[in-house]
Amino acid sequence: MFKTKNDLSEKIRAQAITLLNERLADCIDLQTQAKQAHWNVKGPNFIALHELFDQVNSIVEDYVDEIAERAVQLGGIAEGTARMAASRSSLSEYPSTAVDGHSHVEALSTALATFGRSARSAITIANDLGDLDTADLFTEVSRGIDKWLWFVEAHLQAER
């Protein structure tokens, strides 16, 4: 770890950095899954879903940056290469067979929900560590992911 004048103890910072890098892997995976959906969606709702999935990708990219930068602020290294993310992500593999809008909406909403659950868990862990700034970061991420999950899931909910 790098030296910093941040007043959190080295032990707390080390645990927070580990937590941040775990969620960073998930977030990078989520971003690439949104892009996979964006590139490959087909069907009658193509343009709406194509644009929605790109918006999800864009906001998740911002979360990737925020999570990575927080790890570095604490004296750590952001572990965010594609290979690092692939080996550490807790998200399920995106289905390569997804083509139609419904399949992509189902797959991406599952990934968003999984990541949202992990972000909420990270809030509790960071709070228990006493790193309220990291907890606040994950609160922001969780709130945003829930919003985008709502936007994506709305395409499934009309089919009650």
UniProtKB/TrEMBL annotation:
Gene expressing this chain: dps
NCBIfam families: PRK09448.1
Name of the protein in question: DNA starvation/stationary phase protection protein Dps
Superkingdom of the organism of origin: Bacteria
Family: Belongs to the Dps family.
InterPro entries per record: DPS_DNA-bd (IPR002177), DPS_DNA-bd_CS (IPR023188), Ferritin-like (IPR012347), Ferritin-like_SF (IPR009078), Ferritin_DPS_dom (IPR008331)
Domain Ferritin/DPS, chain residue ranges per copy: 18-157
MF annotations from Gene Ontology: ferric iron binding; oxidoreductase activity, acting on metal ions
